[in-house]
Design goal:
Elements: E1 9-12, H1 19-33, E2 40-45, H2 51-64, E3 68-74, H3 77-87, E4 90-94, E5 103-109, H4 118-130, E6 144-146, H5 150-158, H6 163-169, E7 172-176, H7 186-192, E8 196-199, H8 221-230, E9 234-238, E10 245-248, E11 254-255, H9 257-269, E12 276-279, H10 284-292, E13 297-300, H11 304-314, E14 318-320, E15 326-327, H12 337-350, H13 354-359, E16 365-372, H14 376-386, E17 392-393, E18 398-401, E19 405-411, E20 417-424, H15 427-446
Bound molecules: magnesium ion.
C-alpha cells in the first residue's frame, strides 16, 4: 500500500485518515529527521473540522520523536511553506486541498519550504510501515510553542509585486476562499493592495457550507453572480488550502486555468527573460506564448513538486500547472494562491481588462477522459510497445506528438485509472484523438 499520492496523504477523515495514522506519520517524519539535535517542525492546517483532531495527533507524534513543534493554527499551505523556509526544519500541513468536504490529509514540507521530494516521501513511508520509530528519552521529548505565519508571508508577497501599480488601479475584487485557509490571508492581502474587497465564503467554517473546495466554474456560481451584480473587475477563488487560484473575469466568465497559465507566462516574460516550466499535460497555448517571447519551455512530469524542482534546477522565471497552481520563484518555489492573486492584480493593473487579456491567448480544444483499470502502469506499458514509430515523449506516461495536436496517456498515481488527454485547435480532431487514446487503453485491458 502506498501512503503518499501525488500531493501527500489523502482520504476520508477519521475513517481513512485517522489520528493513529497522523501520529505514526509524524513519528516517521521525526525518525527521518532525528539526526542532529533540536529539530523543529511547523504544523498548520486548513479549516476542515477534523483539522484539530489530526493536528493534535501530529503534534504528539512529532514531540514523541524528539522534534519541537510550532503550531501555526489555520494557514494556507504556501504560508506554512514560507514560514518553514524562514524558521523551521520541516513542516506538516493538515489539508485535503481541493478534495470534497469529508476528506482530510497531510502534506510534508522540506526544510527549504518546498514540498517533500518523492524520494523523501518514500523514506518516510518505509519508516511508517516498519513501525521502527525513534522514541525520545523522557527528558528529550520536544516542546510545543505557537506562532503566527500570515504577517511574514503577506510581507513576502507585497515585496514581490508592484504594489504601487496595483494600488493606483483601484480594483474591485470578489474573493471566495470557500471557507478554507485562504480566508486568513487573501482578503487582507487584497485590502493592503488597495482593492475594494467583497468577500464571499470567508468565514472559517470547517463544514465548508458555501461550496465544495475545488474551485471549478460549477462550484463558483455564487462568485460569478456576485461579480456580475457588483460590477467587480474580477473574482478570485482558492481551493481548500489556497495553493491554487481560480479566476472570473469582469463579465462573470470563468477563465480556463490553461489560459490563466498562458496569460501569466506572458505577463512574467514581458519583464523578465528566462525559462518557463510546466507539466506535459499543459496546453499548447503556453508553448505559443513562450515561443512568442523567444523563451525556452521545459516540460516535466505532472505534479507541482516536479515543476518546482525543475524551476530551481534551471533558474526558470515562472512555472505552473494547468489547474491554477502557479509558482513564482521571486517569492518561493511552490504553488501559491495568494501570491498568484497578487500577480493577477498586477497583470490587470498594468495590462487590460481580464477578458481582453484572456482573448489574446491562442485557443485550443482540450479534452480529458478517464479509463478505469486495475493495473494502470501495466496497461500503459503495453501501449508503449504498440506506439513504436510514433513521436512519443515518455516524460510522464506516453505523450504522442503530431504536427497539430498531442495525446497524453498517463497512469494515475493515486487511483486505479488511466487518464487520456488530447488537444488540438479543432474540436472534432481533439475528440477523434481522445477516442483513439481511449481505445488504446481499453485494448490494453483485454490482452
Ligand atoms: Mg491545494
Amino acid at each position: 500500500m502506498a501512503l503518499f499520492g501525488t500531493n501527500g496523504v489523502r482520504g476520508v477523515a477519521n475513517k481513512e485518515i485517522t489520528p493513529e495514522l497522523a501520529m505514526r506519520l509524524a513519528q516517521s517524519l521525526g525518525t527521518y529527521m532525528h539526526e542532529g539535535p533540536g529539530k523543529t517542525v511547523a504544523i498548520g492546517r486548513d479549516t476542515r473540522n477534523s483539522g484539530d483532531m489530526l493536528k493534535s495527533a501530529c503534534i504528539a507524534g512529532a514531540l514523541s520523536a524528539g522534534l519541537s513543534v510550532i503550531d501555526l493554527g489555520i494557514a494556507p499551505t504556501p504560508c506554512v511553506q514560507f514560514y518553514v523556509r524562514e524558521k523551521a526544519d520541516a513542516g506538516m500541513v493538515i489539508t485535503a486541498s481541493h478534495n470534497p468536504r469529508e476528506y482530510n490529509g497531510i502534506k510534508l514540507i522540506a526544510g527549504d519550504g518546498t514540498e517533500f521530494s518523492r524520494a523523501g516521501e518514500a523514506e518516510v513511508e518505509e519508516i511508517y510501515f516498519s513501525g521502527k520509530f525513534h522514541t525520545a528519552g523522557w527528558s528529550e521529548t520536544g516542546n510545543l510553542t505557537g506562532d503566527s505565519s500570515t504577517g511574514m508571508y503577506m510581507r513576502g508577497i507585497l515585496g514581490a509585486v508592484d504594489v504601487e501599480a496595483v494600488r493606483s488601479a483601484n480594483l474591485k475584487v470578489v474573493v471566495d476562499p470557500g471557507c478554507g485557509a485562504g480566508a486568513v490571508v487573501t482578503p487582507f492581502l487584497l485590502k493592503e493592495l488597495g482593492c475594494e474587497v467583497i468577500s464571499l465564503n470567508a468565514q472559517l467554517d470547517g463544514t465548508l457550507p458555501g461550496r465544495e473546495p475545488e474551485p471549478t466554474a460549477d462550484n463558483l456560481r455564487d462568485m460569478i453572480a456576485l461579480v456580475k451584480a457588483t460590477g467587480a473587475d474580477l473574482g478570485i477563488a482558492h481551493d481548500g488550502d489556497a495553493d491554487r487560484v481560480a479566476l472570473v473575469d469582469e463579465k462573470g466568465d470563468f477563465v480556463n486555468e490553461d489560459v490563466l497559465l498562458a496569460m501569466m507566462t506572458k505577463h512574467v516574460l514581458a519583464s523578465r527573460k528566462g525559462a518557463i516550466v510546466t507539466p506535459v499535460s499543459s496546453s499548447l497555448c503556453v508553448a505559443d506564448v513562450t515561443k512568442e517571447y523567444g523563451a525556452e519551455l521545459i516540460w516535466t512530469r505532472v505534479g507541482s513538486i516536479d515543476v518546482a524542482r525543475k524551476m530551481m534546477e534551471t533558474k526558470a522565471v515562472f512555472g505552473g500547472e494547468g489547474n491554477g497552481g502557479l509558482i513564482f520563484p521571486e517569492h518561493q518555489y511552490c504553488r501559491d494562491g495568494a501570491m498568484a492573486a497578487a500577480k493577477i492584480l498586477e497583470m490587470v493593473a498594468k495590462g487590460a481588462r481580464l477578458s481582453e487579456l484572456a482573448a489574446e491567448v491562442p485557443h485550443y480544444y482540450n479534452v480529458k477522459v478517464k479509463v478505469h483499470c486495475k493495473d494502470p502502469r501495466g496497461a500503459v506499458e503495453k501501449i508503449r510497445q504498440k506506439l513504436r514509430g510514433e513521436k512519443v515523449d515518455a516524460t510522464d506516461g506516453l505523450k504522442v506528438w503530431y504536427d497539430d495536436a498531442w495525446v497524453l496517456i498517463r497512469p494515475s498515481g493515486t487511483e486505479p485509472l488511466v487518464r487520456v488527454y488530447a488537444e488540438s485547435k479543432k474540436e472534432a480532431r481533439t475528440w477523434e484523438l481522445v477516442r483513439w487514446g481511449e481505445e488504446l487503453v481499453k485494448g490494453a485491458l483485454d490482452t
